[in-house]
Amino acid sequence: MDFPTSVELHNGKIRITFTYRGKPCREVLRGWTVNSSNIKKAGNLRALITSEIQLGKFDYAERFPESKALKKFITTKKITTFKELSDFFTDTKALEVSGATLLSLTSVVNTLLRVIRENTRLVDTEHADILHYRKELLAGTIINPAMPNLAGQGRVSSTVNKQMAVLSEMLKPANRSQFIFHAPHEEVSRLQLSKNYPDPL
Hints:
Layout: E1 7-10, E2 13-20, E3 23-28, H1 36-55, H2 60-63, H3 70-73, H4 82-93, H5 99-116, H6 127-139, E4 141-142, E5 152-153, H7 157-176
Helix pairs in contact: 4-5
GO molecular function, one term: DNA binding
GO biological process, one term: DNA integration
Domain Core-binding (CB): 80-175
């Protein structure tokens, strides 16, 4: 009897293995009779679960409500949108930096939110999107929420480099925590510094 990848028999029952949030998981398929058809279905289920994990759509409790492994993940914070990541980042930084530094970081995060949009899904963000955001930061409209009628246009390279550094700092823990399984911020070059002075907004 041929077994698909990561499908095996354990104590006479069909068991699948997959990795979730960096931890190996083994789940016995309760009530599944051991036969060729169910073993093939187990391979398909395991492939579906792997796909859901990669897309950030996997719900452990829904798939395996009686699993003892649930306690390892039930309190794990789930972050899917850029707004949720922004809140997580600023909350974390509030414990690490001074009030003045936090104020500066929050200002940059708010700028990034206006460019990237609150509901943008992290799993949908690719390298090309990061390059687009960099271009928008460099050449797009500058809005000061306190003075919306005094909009400017474009930023100098040094300002954009600092903003992109914050974005990268936000996405690194998102990748390490496996909120996303890719690193769209990697290999984004710094802009060549211009000789103009930045707009204070």
